Amino acid sequence: IITLALDWKVEINYNLDFDYRDEKFDGDAYYKDTIGVTVLNNNNLKEVVFKVNASNAPYVLTKPFHHSQKVIEVEEDGGMVFSIRVHLNYELERLILGFGNTLEVLEPKRFRTRIIRKLKSSLKQYVWHFRKNDKVLAECLPLSFWDGLVMQKNGYLNDRLNFSKKDRCLS
């Protein structure tokens, strides 16, 4: 089976002289362990455990990521921990990254690390580089990123926080 991106195709040539072969393909069975269309080998089939915050947990509960989804834990604040058994493919990454800071991958560790690397790489798109003589002295997020940021402590949202330049810098 080959997955083709048909929206990229400009022209399709076909030959009607070939006889049609009915392969008895069962698409449901073929895609059962996959989110999206990228089916990988079973070495990439893993149980993924993730936590979703309270505001998004009802959405994920009523619109599961995959038919294998199970609720592992309901947290006191209304957040939920889920598990799914799927291939660790590109479409799964896109789905998880789309939830931003409302979803945290807990297991497997290697997949968690992969998501963390992508998030760090994304953050660097918004970094200012402070240079002196063409040497990067620090990579900092602009003040607008930190403006209005609040920290939750003891269940209450605190007022705006004041961050020093050191706090805003990544290096």
Strand order, biggest sheet? 2-3-1-4
Q: Uncertain spans, ≥5 residues at pLDDT below 50?
A: 148-163
Helix content: 10-25%
The residue-averaged pLDDT reads 80
For the record, give the distance between the C-alpha atoms at the N and C termini, rounded to a whole number.
47 Å
Number of strands: 8
Counting DSSP H or I runs of 4 or more residues, the number of helices is: 6
Instruction: Spell out the helices and strands N to C.
Output: HEHEEHEHEEHEEH
Structural class: alpha+beta
Based on CA atoms alone, the radius of gyration comes out at 22 Å
Largest sheet: 4 strands, antiparallel
Beta-strand proportion: 15-25%
Shape: extended
List the helices and strands and how they pair.
Elements: H1 27-30, E1 45-52, H2 57-62, E2 70-74, E3 80-87, H3 90-98, E4 103-107, H4 109-123, E5 128-132, E6 135-140, H5 143-146, E7 152-153, E8 156-157, H6 165-168
Keywords summarizing the entry:
extended, 171 residues, 24% strand, two-stranded antiparallel ribbon, four-stranded antiparallel β-sheet, 8 strands
